[in-house]
């Protein structure tokens, strides 16, 4: 073999030569590392076939590194149907289950019960169709209870709006111990209804009540606040205003704090007095809050039950008995669950219609404004 054949032989079969700066152990370590990397690359190429995609801006294809997909080992134990469900569903699932079991299911069962002559003593009873609904239309007790509920609503709703607005306007101004007045106005709303009725039963007592004692001190005779039909409804309205006005007051106070002070400063520069600022700035900007309070208060007043039941039990002579107390008496005293369910759903329909009418009217006013 000539001297000219030596480079070709060396090119056909390369030899590993040990550099002068590396030892024998270093060369063996490099060789082992190279073999392990080559085997790992071959395994990756076999298990994950390369998917050639055009590179951005050119027609070239990407290599195996760009074609790797996420490892499926994290979802091997999950069924495919569960993997397609968004994670947020699992967070709201407990609430949905409780909502279905404790709210929607009783509502559906109550609606079904209203078509049967069901008794609390036992048994579903006979199917009467719309018989319970026809009976409530001819029931004088339903009419009188609905009239008492309407009368209470008409008496209490304007007071709860006006008094709350006045209280919010007073405590929104800079005044000494403003936090104390705010706390005192809102605190009764946090008191349970049983405690409220107990306090006012003592205050309105005929013989030993504080209010009658004050009236006797100024020369006026005592008033049977809870025993006379005319005074009983007035007493219930007074207790309700004292107890629940704090919620409306808090809504008005939050709305007043959202009105920019620059409007009042600019109006003062233009020469507006306090009354003009009230009727031209404050009240127009509180229109949405007033509409919200009116809707909430009407619904709450139509559903009155607790304070009347604990104060007067619907008396005297059923002059203060609301519709919800009559539903309670029919269902749990008269044991007629089917008939009481029919009255409940008829009353629910009335409240729903009133709420929709109110929302419709306020939406029209806002659209015209």
From TrEMBL:
This is Sugar ABC transporter permease. The chain crosses the membrane at residues 89-116, 152-171, 183-203, 230-251, 342-362. PANTHER family: ABC TRANSPORTER PERMEASE PROTEIN, DIACETYLCHITOBIOSE UPTAKE SYSTEM PERMEASE PROTEIN NGCF. Keywords: Cell membrane, Membrane, Transmembrane, Transmembrane helix, Transport. It is found in: Cell membrane. Residues 146-358 form the ABC transmembrane type-1 domain. Residues 1-78 are annotated as: Disordered.
